[in-house]
Amino acid sequence: MLGLSACGVPADEWAEEACAGVLPGDLVITEYLNDPEGSDTGQEYVELHNPHAKPVELESLTLYAARSDGSQEKGFSFSGSRPVLAGEYLVLGDVRDGPLPAHVDQSYGESLGALGNASGKLGLRCGSRVIDEVSLSAPARSGLARALDGRLWPDSAGNDDLSRWCDVSSASGGSGTFQGSPGAANAPCSAGDGGSVGESVATCVPMGAVSPRSVKWPRVGELVITEVMVNPLGDDTLGEWVEVMATVPVDLNELSLGSDTTVAKLQAPHCLSLPAGGYAVLARRTEAVLNGGLPTPVASLGVDLRNAGGVVQVKAGEVLVDAVAYGASEEGVATQVSPREASASGNDSPAAWCRASESYGVRGNRGSPGRVNRACEAGTDSPDGGVRDGGGFDGGSRDAGVVDAGTPEGGTRDGGGPDAGSGGASCIDRVTGRPRAVRTPGVGALVLTEFMADPAAVADGMGEWLEVLALREVDLNGVTLTNEGGASTTLDAALCLSLRAGSRGVLARQADTSLNGGLPSVLATFNFNLANSAGSRSLRLGVEGQVLDTITWTHAATPGVSWQVDPASSDPWRNDVSGSFCLSPSGARYGLGDRGTPGLENRACAP
User: How far apart are CA 174 and CA 177, in angstroms?
Assistant: First the structure.
């Protein structure tokens, strides 16, 4: 039997105890219909999937919906036994009268009210512990279900990324007055499927055409910020500009371009289209006589860029397509990214940026608006720049978990003590967009909990990764990761690489999800290999001369399988104990199908 409660479901202790065995990621939201044709009442549905090899019990779990800010929450509680079998897709529907439709397995009645048609939250939890949560987004038109990309293994970290969702295409079949695939595996998303994966709800008229078409929004990595002029000679409100480059054909209509304080949409009745490799200048004023002689801007820039430093970001709906941070400007000189680093991941590094040297226009300003930048040279004055994309400002909600840690075969003891403090370093807060002191971790604040040395889905240089668990609220800016051979990477970004207490961060060789095997949002990247062969191996986290955590092992890597610490060994001391690490279980998969739980709570190691 199923029970329900509405309008702010309490996290009763008895309920949390009853479902304590259900871990984040055991059930995954894989599809929903939030905007049916006609009335929403009685037609909406939510699909849950069990991607693991054993049943998961729904009893005492709560399905909930709320606004994006968490307000006006309503929920449905499962008060009786209902196992979701291994591999099963369970469909829960807003069915208020009569028999269940063929595609609905259980009704939640009116408990959730109407799901947000364009935004909101949808989740599943045990008491106060989140099992999975996704952000709702609008379909291209009413009657289309939104589905998680069928190319990727369903996991509750990966589905936080709005760019992994798309409208269900006609090829997936439909039932009644909607188009969806409830109760079955999802089809792969494609560029034409709509919604946040490439196509917006807006329309535009192509040049020379009469009929409108859907706007083709860029996905993460498909539109790159390559140059910014924040302090031109003369009036800033006339001469400021931003240059972007497209890596595939895209439209700029209805994209949000902004700073860390203001955002404005790019609007025009005709399509603001860019070909692959094309550049667009977005300027405060489009008239050459006012803007200092710029090449014709594609659209006007409706935000003020601060001379003292700040952030420039581009969003498609709620998806952060690209963002960069810049430092204090020099009057009349643009800041540009080196051509070899002109990608959404390459422009994250401050070293990728330098001051322009070529002149343009009639006022003596320096920059290369609308054309390829010159290569930055080693030792060139390089202003601070770079912001991690795809989950920085507006990534999806991270699912809850408990503390864990460990080391595969023995290890080095780490010291204790309070956090080290900021030491005067600063970074730009991902929530406020304003500079603040770095929360430098101290010994005991970070734990190495999982690593993938030999991915099978993609090449090692693209798919290697590791996971760190924060036991306190910290930033990873300035933290150094080192292997047994002395190769190291110091994590450096203008944006705060923040982790809340109890949350996990993924550090990877490649941030682009289309290249790294489908990892969830990557917090930062490292640039050395993880050894596959047996030998004396280690990974060490350190900052300001202190060792934060070290793990050591001697075994060879298993292709396509990560090593993870047992959840009972979740601190920098117990993860030194021999046997605290084990291979990830066969049911724990992510992205393109490799085994592991990046960004999620680890599974218990078998005795």
Answer: 8
Per residue in 79-110, pLDDT (tens digit) is 889 999 999 999 999 999 889 999 999 999 99
Q: Are 129 and 141 in contact (CB under 8 A)?
A: no
Q: Which letter does DSSP use for residue 15 in this model?
A: H
Give the rounded distance of the alpha carbon of 92 from its chain centre: 27
What pLDDT, in 10s, does the model give residues 192-246?
Answer: 444 433 345 578 898 888 888 888 888 878 899 999 999 999 999 999 999 999 9
Which helix or strand (DSSP H or E) is residue 13 part of?
helix 13-18
Helices (H) and strands (E) in the chain, counts: 4, 44
Would you say residue 407 has pLDDT above 60?
no
Cβ–Cβ < 8 Å for 272, 206: no
Radius of gyration of the chain (CA): 25
Q: Give, rounded to a whole angstrom, the gap between the first and last alpha carbons of the chain.
A: 35
Cα separations (Å) of 220 from 17, 299, 321, 390?
40, 21, 4, 6
Give the pairing of strands 504-508 and 524-525.
Answer: parallel
Going by pLDDT thresholds of 50, 70 and 90, the confidence category of residue 383 is low
The one-letter amino acid code at 95 reads V
Place of tokens 């917090």: 523
Per-residue b or e along 446-466, where b marks 16 or more CB atoms closer than 10 Å to that residue's CB: bbbbbbbbbbbbbebebbbbb
Helices marked H in 546-596 — which ranges? none
Q: Cα separation of 407 and 579, whole Å?
A: 7
SS (H, E, C) 116-134: CCCCCEEEEEECCEEEEEE
For 419, the token pair is 């956090």
Q: Are 227 and 368 in contact (CB under 8 A)?
A: yes
Q: Which residues of 317-346 are buried (b: 16+ CB within 10 A; e: fewer)?
A: bbbbbbbbbbeebeebbbbbbbeebbbbbb
DSSP 3-state of 47: strand
Q: Which of 324, 475, 306, 328 is nearest to 386 (CA)?
A: 324
pTM: 0.65
Confidence of residue 378 (pLDDT cuts 50, 70, 90): low
Q: Token pair 């970074």 is at which residue?
A: 427
Rounded distance between C-alpha atoms, residue 585 and residue 602, angstroms? 9
What is the β-pairing status of strands 319-326 and 310-316? antiparallel
Q: Are 562 and 595 in contact (CB under 8 A)?
A: yes
**Would the pLDDT of 5 be above 70?**
no
- Residue 2 pLDDT > 50, yes or no? no
Compute the average pLDDT of residues 280-307: 92
Sheet with strand 121-126: strands edge to edge: 74-77, 61-66, 121-126, 129-135
In 51-197 the beta strands, taken as DSSP E runs, fall at: 56-57, 61-66, 74-77, 83-84, 89-93, 106-107, 121-126, 129-135, 146-148, 165-167, 174-175, 178-179
What's the CA gap between 528 and 530, in Å, rounded? 7
CA-based nearest residue to 29, from 52, 63, 4: 63
3-class secondary structure, 399: coil
Beta strand extents in 334-393 (DSSP E only): 335-337, 353-355
